[in-house]
Amino acid sequence: AKEAGRNTYQYYSQDALARTQRRLDIEHALNGAIDRDEFSLVYQPLVHAVGDQPPSIEALLRWESARLGPCSPAEFIPIAEKCGEIIRIGDWVLDEVCRQARVWQQAGLSFDRVAVNVSALQLRERGFAERVIALCNRHGWSPTRLELELTESALIRDTDALRQCFDVFERHGVPLAVDDFGTGFSNLHYLNRFPVQRLKIDRSFVQGMLHDAGTAEVTQAIVHLGHALGMRVVAEGVETPAEASMLQRQGCDELQGYLFSQPLRPREMVQWLRSSQE
Ligand code: C2E
Ligand code: CA
Ligand code: CA
Ligand code: CA
Questions:
Q1: According to the UniProt entry, where is the signal peptide (predicted)?
Q2: Within 10 A of 212 (CB to CB), how many other CB atoms are there?
Q3: Which helix (H) or strand (E) holds 88?
């Protein structure tokens, strides 16, 4: 038994070692990744549940490291946050999204907002809001059409700096969405404190709603809550027509997921927009 115990211990410590090594490899490879042009964006449409108003588009980051190969944002974003690299990466994403959106607009494609995922660390960075506005101006992209998707964890700290940041966004009409809504904190005070326009129901709820009545109650409650506060509600991770029609019946405003489209390379996104306009 003692022997087995020791083996288990060795097994776990090797596992922990491998994970630490992987984290260090990623941290190392992130260094200079922007200059090596290793990042790109893919785009996923958000469609209206009812009617045929133009869709919106969420930008999702992709990283093909020369050293490590493709690496998913779920794996590298938390590491980029820990080592501080997320600030520069986040700026790159915002810059690229505004540039791309402007190009698409000038090509006559019709869409509403472009949405960008923003880390809590970016929000806390001095002058972030001003930088976002300056970036929009530089690219000739209206700040009212650049939506920032924030997680609940970014909104729980009510500091002066955060408040100033949101004042700037509000003054320029930058729409804010709460991403992964329902998975974070149960304290909802921030919904009244900050100028949030949209709630995004996390995909875990959407995936459960057809199999579990309780989960369907949760999505319905989020829709009611959002509407009561004057917000729009979006569901992410919609994969089947049955999920879409249930969310539609519940009054959800916008839907996003593989049912409508996977995240697309820019050229594929253009084709998708063209064919959905026909
Ligand atoms: P998220 O913002 O909640 O994005 C939704 C994730 O679900 C994306 O994964 C998307 O590709 C995936 N997805 C979309 N539709 C479906 C569906 O129908 N079914 C399933 N199973 N999945 C679907 P992705 O691209 O791997 O991104 C993962 C997370 O990484 C994002 O979650 C977001 O939190 C973060 N992330 C991505 N890009 C950025 C970025 O530019 N900046 C920051 N800070 N975070 C980002
Ligand atoms: Ca998101
Ligand atoms: Ca999510
Ligand atoms: Ca997220």
A1: none
A2: 12
A3: helix 86-106
Q: Are 182 and 215 in contact (CB under 8 A)?
A: no
- Taking CA atoms, 46 is separated from 40, 117, 180, 263, 268, in Å, by 20, 14, 15, 11, 15
Classify 69 in phi/psi space as left (phi over 0), alpha (psi -120 to 50) or beta.
left
> Which residues does ligand 1 sit against, CB inside 6 Å?
44, 60-61, 72-74, 77, 93, 117-119, 179-180, 203, 236-239, 257-258, 263
Q: Is 47 helix (H, G, I), strand (E, B) or coil?
A: strand
Measure 103 CA to ligand 2 centroid, in angstroms: 22
Question: pLDDT tens digits, the chain, 278 residues: what are they?
Answer: 455 556 666 666 888 889 999 999 999 999 999 999 999 999 999 999 999 999 999 999 999 999 999 999 999 999 999 999 999 999 999 999 999 999 999 999 999 999 999 999 999 999 999 999 999 999 999 999 999 999 988 888 878 888 999 999 999 999 999 999 988 766 788 888 888 999 999 999 999 999 999 999 999 999 999 999 999 999 999 999 999 999 999 999 999 999 999 999 999 999 999 998 87
In whole angstroms, give the CA distance from residue 244 to residue 129. 35
Are 64 and 38 in contact by the 8 Å Cβ rule? The answer is: yes
Stated pTM of the model: 0.94
Q: Does the interface ipTM go beyond 0.95?
A: yes
**Ligand 2 centroid vs 149 CA: distance in angstroms?**
6
Residue whose token pair is 């306009």: 277
State in Å: Cα 182 to ligand 4 middle.
Answer: 12
Ligand 1 atom 3: the closest Cα is on which residue? 180
Smallest CA-to-CA distance from 117 within 75, 39, 69, 58 is with 58
